[in-house]
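request received
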Amino acid sequence: MKASPTTLKSISHGNKIRLEILRVSTDIASAEGLEGLTIGRLAKDAGMSKSGLFAHFGSKEDLQLATLEAAALTFAEQIIEPTANVEPGVKRLVAMLEAWIQSVEKSNYRGGCLFFSASAEMDDRPGKVRDLLAELTESWVIALNNEAKLAVRLGELREDCNVELLIFQIHGFVQEANWFYRLHNEKRAFDWARKSIDQILRFLRTGGEKI
Amino acid sequence: MKASPTTLKSISHGNKIRLEILRVSTDIASAEGLEGLTIGRLAKDAGMSKSGLFAHFGSKEDLQLATLEAAALTFAEQIIEPTANVEPGVKRLVAMLEAWIQSVEKSNYRGGCLFFSASAEMDDRPGKVRDLLAELTESWVIALNNEAKLAVRLGELREDCNVELLIFQIHGFVQEANWFYRLHNEKRAFDWARKSIDQILRFLRTGGEKI
DNA sequence: TGACATATAGCACGTTCGTGCTATATAACT
DNA sequence: AGTTATATAGCACGAACGTGCTATATGTCA
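response:
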């Protein structure tokens, strides 16, 4: 979640207008993609002139980077922070996942999870945007991994638990739920994800039978 | 997998040039997306003039539809047909999944699975393209469901097996592997997907312990 | 109050987008 | 051989793209 100096500084010194622009841009980008997020469209939605808005960012690439960082900030506020003081281990892992699922289910943005759509869009376009996106999403995967490892150390999950595989599966369930819901309007997908997570964790809890 | 009359007719009456164009367009679209697939870029890659190429399709939307259909044709040839005469039930289900995984792993297209990237791109853009994409991907999900149901009927999977949930999980594993590989260059992701599928199927096989 | 920094708008640029219209090759058929 | 259908190219259009340059408001501080 390390941010480039420029945008982070600009965000933190209380530039309310910039924040408002980014609120709009995350919304557009979630639906139209980071490339579909055009300056003209964003200016209209934000009620500004193209050049007036553009002055806040030196380039489209900077706008995309700032948009990703804004989304990461929201993600941290809504998902990471609220679960920081939950009891460590499986309890907190489940809380993190449930918060994540709910954020996708309630979809703060018009187009659902921005990181999901941006991933498919940018994974073949080398550059700073792709790099930042990879960094942000990886940090979430790592956070989940760390919590699962902690659960193993606490004796809540089995010693022989393949943590990386577990997080791969669980992470996949949530992304699949987003895909199913967004493309096929399948609202049950979120409960499928919940059930799947529950199923897998029950297996790996200490005291269960070996797989 | 029903195709629009126009494009299907054009494909089937042996228009080799059109097929060659679509081979290029699927490649571009897999990497740049269906919107990033521009007429000019496609013309250059195909060694034609913009207008000369455009004459084969009445509109960009038609080009996108034809590109999706071409990808679906390849999908059918490489994944569905070769597994059609595998022994029905779990064996064939696994064969379908393995063929699918390999097609993503070896990635015929430069940008990986076209349906995956197109899903994230189009899920918020109502229209014919989105509709066709939803139809094509759904038909694959249905095919997997049917094979799993058959496995239950054959007594290979447990009676109380929640087939819809099972396919949700398995389908998610493969999509997650594509995501992991494409964005994070994580080649182990495909083995994770294989291992996950194997794990889940072993559980649901008759004779195992109840979950 | 005057100097100065900042935010916004106006305008224009070169490029590329999708998409028409028209002319010319090439192939097929009578 | 002459007509006709098809494929391709040339060209131009209006619009939107990202991005500069310049002028004007709107503060902030001396």
